[in-house]
Design brief:
InterPro entries: CBS_dom, CBS_dom_sf, Mg_transptr_MgtE_intracell_dom, MgtE_N_sf, MgtE_transporter, PRC-brl_dom, PRC_barrel-like_sf, SH3_actinomycetes
GO molecular function, one term: magnesium ion transmembrane transporter activity
Number of strands: 18
Structural class: alpha+beta
Strand content: 15-25%
CATH topology of the largest domain: SH3 type barrels
Radius of gyration: 26 Å
CATH architecture of the largest domain: Roll
Distance between the termini: 21 Å
Shape: elongated
Helix content: 25-40%
Protein name: CBS domain-containing protein
Largest sheet: 7 strands, mixed
CATH class of the largest domain: Mainly Beta
Number of helices: 19
Keywords: CBS domain
Pfam families: CBS, MgtE_N, PRC, SH3_actinomycetes
Number of domains: 3
């Protein structure tokens, strides 16, 4: 490995990982340390690397040949491709040590861990030798103490038992999440111990937690929602996309579902209730009730302004739906659609009525998943209208929702490809 004196964990977060021939492997998501019974610094066992397929695997430190400010490079050799699972004697440096509360050894001075630095030893091992800390002072308001870098031996209270029982903040971890997509944050949260997962959820704002919750597997969604206080759970459901909120509520017991719907604001719960009336594997159950809906007298310029909204998912931005008032679903009479490529070709002052495609077939809310899939394949769409028998637009189905229901139920947990056969069993000894 290239000579490096010290590397702090936060610097490694998100770094790209390359193979010996420069091929892209994935990104660093955490470091795994093996805690000791004595006060000596814990050994860094390896990295948690998220592959391009979203699977998270363990890479032993002996496979790391260089750590640069911009990338990590691995040596030639096989790596166990099984999904990473934390072992009882292990701690996730980013996920569990950051924000941990401890004390200075031999005193009652309370501190918070801000970062952790690993250093190489003469035996080619890496140990968690340094901790960046701040003192926890009472009564200083917003004032913060200066950060210090101490040896591992100078800090007490970071054993596995300590981390399991003491309350812990999540400020430093959330700072790392700021640069990550919601799907990547969800994968990180899913790998955390249950206590830490709850602490992170408590520290997140409602909008961010809603985005992350949408990317979690069903069982993790239900567990996290049940942990939250009912009032906050209702707020999170309001912040979710209505179709995702409906999918989650459909998994709950009827009494719990009704209670949460009652706690939601009426204007937020109404579209969710409409979606719950349909089976989850039909167009009505798959659709979102909040597509871009415009009246025929809207200008092309105004239509383009609507789809430029940064919060609009790309699939919904691919098409606007033209309807008679009212424009809230269920709308007035559905006129047709305008594809965004057509909007780009038309003069800005023209009305969307002049560009409407009235020939595109619409889905009925009771259309099966197989019918919806054939519809998207036949018309090469990423978004399609759902219309009732009286020509009211009810919502729109997007291709990502179709794929979500076509993929195996555990696809978020196993990654996009099953690579469990690609293993290097001899590497397990490096983690013992």
């Amino acid at each position: 490995m290239a000579a490096v004196n010290r590397v702090f964990a936060a610097q490694l977060s998100g770094l790209p990982v390359f193979g010996p021939d420069g091929e892209s492997i994935g990104r660093v998501r955490d470091l795994v340390a093996g805690l000791r019974l004595d006060a000596q610094p814990p050994r860094i066992l390896g990295l948690v690397v998220e592959l391009t397929t979203r699977r998270r695997v363990f890479v032993p430190m002996l496979r790391v040949t260089s750590i640069e400010p911009s990338a990590v490079t691995l040596a030639t050799g096989s790596v166990n491709m099984r999904q990473f699972t934390q072992r009882p004697n292990e701690v996730l440096v980013l996920g569990q040590l950051l924000d941990a509360h401890a004390t200075l050894a031999g005193s009652d001075t309370r501190i918070t861990v801000v970062d952790a630095g690993m250093e190489p030893t003469r035996t080619r091992d890496w140990v968690l030798a340094k901790l960046a800390i701040r003192e926890r002072r009472v009564g200083l308001g917003r004032r913060r103490s200066a950060m210090q870098v101490l040896r591992w031996e100078e800090v007490a209270g970071l054993g596995l038992a300590d981390l399991a029982k003491q309350p812990q903040g999540a400020g430093q971890l959330l700072m790392l999440f700021d640069t990550m997509r919601s799907v990547d944050v969800a994968a990180t949260v899913r790998d955390l111990p249950l206590k830490r997962r709850h602490e992170v959820a408590d520290a997140m704002d409602d909008e961010r937690l809603a985005d992350v919750l949408e990317e979690l597997p069903d069982d993790d969604q239900k567990e996290l929602l049940s942990y939250l206080a009912e009032e906050r759970a209702a707020d999170i459901l309001e912040a979710m996309n209505p179709d995702d909120a409906a999918d989650l509520l459909a998994e709950l017991a009827p009494a719990e579902q009704s209670r949460l719907l009652e706690l939601m604001e009426p204007e937020e719960s109404a579209p969710v209730k409409r979606l719950l009336a349909y089976s989850s594997d039909t167009a009505g159950g798959l659709m979102t009730p909040e597509p871009v809906v415009l009246t025929p007298d809207t200008t092309i310029a105004e239509a383009l302004a609507h789809i430029r909204n940064a919060e609009l998912p790309p699939a919904l931005a691919s098409m606007v739906f033209v309807c008679r008032p009212p424009t809230a679903t269920p709308t007035g009479r559905f006129v047709g659609v305008v594809h965004f490529q057509r909007l780009l070709r038309e003069p800005p002052a023209e009305l969307v009525a002049s560009a409407v495609d009235t020939g595109l077939a619409a889905l009925r809310p009771n259309a099966t998943l197989a019918e919806v899939t054939r519809y998207f394949a036949a018309y090469n769409l990423t978004c399609g209208p759902v219309v009732d028998t009286e020509d009211h637009l009810l919502g729109a189905v997007t291709v990502d929702d179709v794929l979500d229901h076509l993929l195996p139920e555990n696809w978020r947990e196993t990654g996009l490809h099953d690579t469990t056969g690609e293993t290097g069993e001899h590497l397990e000894a490096d983690r013992a």
